[in-house]
């Protein structure tokens, strides 16, 4: 997987639903390669360590950030994004 990501010069990786083990392996690689991760599943932002999630809540799109994951991927968060996002702690 690592070589495929490198070969395609990926800078953002969208992670679909899957097992925690598979997701954890992907986030380990993305942190090593400093690639931003995203998902459409709020739960994965916390339990899998994905940086950015966009999911629906009360029929409205919501943005979720895992600051630990963002830092581990070598990224920073714009203050404007922080104002509209919900911060999620890893492992919860």
Structure description:
- By secondary structure, the chain is α/β, with parallel strands linked by helices.
- The chain is 41% helix and 24% strand.
- The chain has one domain.
- The protein has a 5-stranded mixed beta sheet.
- The protein starts with a helix and ends in a 5-residue tail after the last strand.
- The model has no long low-confidence stretch (mean pLDDT 89).
Helices and strands in order:
Blueprint: H1 2-7, E1 12-14, H2 20-33, E2 36-39, H3 42-47, E3 52-57, E4 60-65, H4 67-72, H5 79-84, E5 85-87
Parallel strand pairs: 1-2, 2-3, 4-5
Antiparallel strand pairs: 3-4
Short summary:
With 92 residues, the protein is α/β, with parallel strands linked by helices.
Please supply descriptive tags for the structure shown above.
5-stranded mixed sheet; 92 residues; alpha/beta; single chain; 5 helices
By DSSP, the count of extended strands is 5
Helical proportion?
Answer: 40-55%
Mean pLDDT score: 89
Give the termini distance in whole angstroms: 27 Å
Element pattern in H and E: HEHEHEEHHE
- Runs in which pLDDT lies below 50 for 5 or more consecutive residues are none
Q: How are the strands of the biggest sheet laid out side by side?
A: 1-2-3-4-5
Helix-strand makeup class:
alpha/beta
What is the number of helical segments per DSSP (H or I, 4+ residues)? 5
